Amino acid sequence: MHRPHKMILNAQNRVEPLLIFLVRGRNKAVMMAFTTIGTGNVTLACLDQGRGPAIVALHGFPDTWRTWDAASRALVEAGYRVIRMALRGYAPSGIPTDGRYEVTYLAEDVLSLLDHLDLQDCTILGHDWGASTAYELALHAPDRLAAIVALSVPPPATATSGWKERLSRPHNLYLGLGPVSDWWLRRKDFSEVRRLYKMWSPSWTANSQHVEAVIDDLRPPERSRASVDFYRRRLGTIAGRATLPSVPSLLIYGSDEPKVRRDGFEAARSGLVASSRVVRIEGVGHWPHLEAPKTVLDEIVGFLGFDS
Question: 200: helix, coil or strand?
Fold first, then answer.
């Protein structure tokens, strides 16, 4: 079985200067300093805040590292160190020169980050693609993890995948069509991004400022193309993982989740290791951490059990 971090170690990590990234706040623009790490074919950017047990937070689609703003503040106040990484292809991380977006490569990126920061026994907090990455890390590098917290995507071992599943959820199909998907995402000033927030969280109205910030990050053509290329590589890289995570796992999903089949979460419950939990939040869709932030935070802090 291929172990992703072996590929990382073949590429010499190089530390780049701090990247100063302009972030639009509610009333003003704020300059934020990101640490950048070169991994051979892509430069990764992360925002490292707080001191204490480390949590690496990974976003999904359509989203950015900002999705963890509120959760990061609360977790830092609770005594944790939170490292938010922008996935490859998403600003301010770079576009991979090899065009690879399979989940194995996402896991390699995280392991490269852990190596650079000299982190062992950290928690991976992931939403959507970030959750898929957490499962991949738990499968191939469990010795580097204390736990995983996965939101809105069930473990591949219990998820329904393949063409039948794709056809039952058309967004999973049309998002994997390369240039056609990119055109569809960009048409009418990215109206599809706004529609996805409404469709995937039907009982919640997303913060318009957050959604527009996501769109702003996707405006450069290479960024929007990268975001849909994740789906182009999906089949064959996630399907068929028959093993549940071997590390303590907190799985959180909403009762109104429409993007994936919800039964995959409950099917995993009996096969997870001791101290793991599966939490269903009523009235919540695809973005539990934004729709029910206090509930999600309480579940994370209770699960990790660190007392500052």
Answer: helix
Split at pLDDT 50, 70, 90, the class of 191 is very high
Q: Report pLDDT digits (tens) over 285-299.
A: 999 999 999 999 999
What one-letter code names the amino acid at 224? S
The answer to whether the CB of 87 falls within 8 A of the CB of 93 is yes
Closest CA to 86 of 155, 32, 151: 32
Q: Can you give the residue ranges of every domain in the chain? A: 4-304
Q: How many CA atoms lie within 13 A of 140 on its CB side?
A: 23
Residue 223 and residue 217 in contact, taking contact as beta carbons nearer than 8 Å: yes
Q: What is the pLDDT of residues 31-61, one digit of tens each?
A: 567 888 988 889 999 999 999 999 999 999 9
* H helix count then E strand count, the chain: 12, 10
Q: What is the per-residue pLDDT for 35?
A: 87
125 has a pLDDT exceeding 50: yes
Question: Which CATH architecture best describes the domain 4-304?
Answer: 3-Layer(aba) Sandwich (3.40)
| Single-letter amino acid, residue 121 | D
- Cα dihedral 106, 107, 108, 110 sign: positive
Residue spans of beta strands (DSSP E) within the chain: 14-15, 19-24, 29-38, 43-49, 54-58, 81-86, 122-127, 145-151, 249-254, 277-281
What is the DSSP annotation of 235-273? TTTSTT-----SS-EEEEEETT--SS-THHHHHHGGGSP
Of 90, 4, 12, 86, give the one whose Cα is nearest residue 45: 86
